[in-house]
Design brief:
The chain is α/β, with parallel strands linked by helices. It contains eleven helices and ten strands. The chain has a domain at 3-90 and 171-262: Rossmann fold (3-Layer(aba) Sandwich), CATH 3.40.50.300. It has helices at residues 43-51, 73-79, 96-106, 116-122, 129-139, 155-168, 185-200, 212-218, 236-239, 243-251, 256-262; strands at 3-14, 17-28, 31-36, 58-63, 66-67, 81-84, 173-177, 204-208, 221-226, 229-234. The strands form two sheets. It has a six-stranded mixed sheet, with helices on both faces. A four-stranded antiparallel sheet has the order 2-1-4-5, with helices on one face. Strand 4 and strand 5 form a beta hairpin. The structure holds adenosine-5'-diphosphate and magnesium ion (MG). Residues 43-44, 86 line the site of magnesium ion. Adenosine-5'-diphosphate binds next to strand 2 and helix 1.
């Protein structure tokens, strides 16, 4: 397997607390991989270490063949690590268009050789920055609100703006931290379809999500974290029958809908 993102032996400590312990992940192109687990399992911390927001005590992060473990957050973003945040991070007072434009700024010195997300956007067309922003707005159905401040939008649209900003930087791998939280059922289904289109266009996607039915529907591979350790990995249909996973969820802090979805035969 040719992984776009590889995490090896990632360990993160906060003082004496071991938040992430020897985590290995491989995220290939063209697939949605899921990272799931109860609250506090270490999912966001893993994302933070991949992006360079926090320094791990040990372990390596590779993007393609390149070891990016020692690089800063901006360098990693430029090289193709894209991300959205659990607590939605948008510029509320800026317009939708300007928020997406920020993604372009990240790639100021981007490599011309890289354009996987462009296939999703316009079949490989070589667009100028402003044209690409309009295309992203159009594809994410944000054209009608392009001039509105993001702070005035409902959560569902604001999450799309955050995704648009990440896409504008032309990521090679996209890390999504609970992107469906605050979305209603119809929005969640539409969001899942959008992710599937992005993966089909060649993007590597790593999804952290509490909505287990969304996870089961769109992910082709799951890694399950519990107390900072990977306790299981494999295709969703195997994971939902895995004893260790079921007991982590049933004994943990996951909500009832997650339990129901995890039960064999449950969920969507
Ligand atoms: N900045 C921090 N300082 C100290 N402990 C933290 C910090 N961030 C997270 N933790 C702890 O690390 C563990 C993993 O947290 P987190 O990665 O946010 O879990 P998840 O995203 O899976 O819910 C939790 O026990 C959490 O309390
Ligand atoms: Mg989290």
């Amino acid at each position: 397997m040719n992984a776009v993102l590889t995490v090896e032996g990632l360990t993160v400590r906060f003082g004496g607390h071991l938040a992430v312990s020897s985590v290995d992940l491989e995220v290939p192109a063209g697939r949605i991989s899921g990272l799931i687990g109860p609250n506090g399992a270490g999912k966001t911390t893993t994302f933070n270490a991949i992006c360079g927001v926090i320094s791990p005590s040990s372990g390596r992060v590779r993007l393609g063949d390149r070891d990016i473990s020692k690089l800063g957050t901006h360098q990693r973003a430029r090289l193709g690590v894209g991300r959205t945040f659990q607590r939605l991070e948008v510029f509320s007072s800026l317009s939708v268009r300007d928020n997406v434009q920020v993604g372009l700024e990240i790639r100021r010195s981007w490599s011309r050789r890289r354009a996987p997300a462009s296939q999703f956007l316009a079949a490989g067309a070589d667009l100028s920055g402003p044209e690409e922003v309009e295309l992203i707005l159009d594809r994410l159905d944000l054209g009608a609100v392009a001039d509105a401040p993001v702070g005035s939008l409902p959560t569902g649209q604001a999450r799309l703006v955050e995704l648009g900003r990440a896409l504008a930087a032309r990521p090679r791998v996209l890390l999504l931290d609970e992107p469906a939280s605050g979305l209603d059922d119809a929005e969640t289904v539409a969001f899942g379809e959008l992710l599937e289109q992005l993966a089909a266009a060649g993007l590597a996607v790593l999804l952290v999500e509490h909505d287990i039915s969304l996870v089961m529907r769109v992910c082709r591979h799951l890694s399950v974290l519990d107390f900072g350790q990977i306790i299981a990995e494999g295709p969703p249909e195997e994971i939902r029958r895995n004893e260790a996973v079921l007991s982590a969820y049933l004994g943990g802090t996951a909500d009832v809908s997650a339990e129901a979805a995890m039960a064999p035969g449950g969920g969507g």
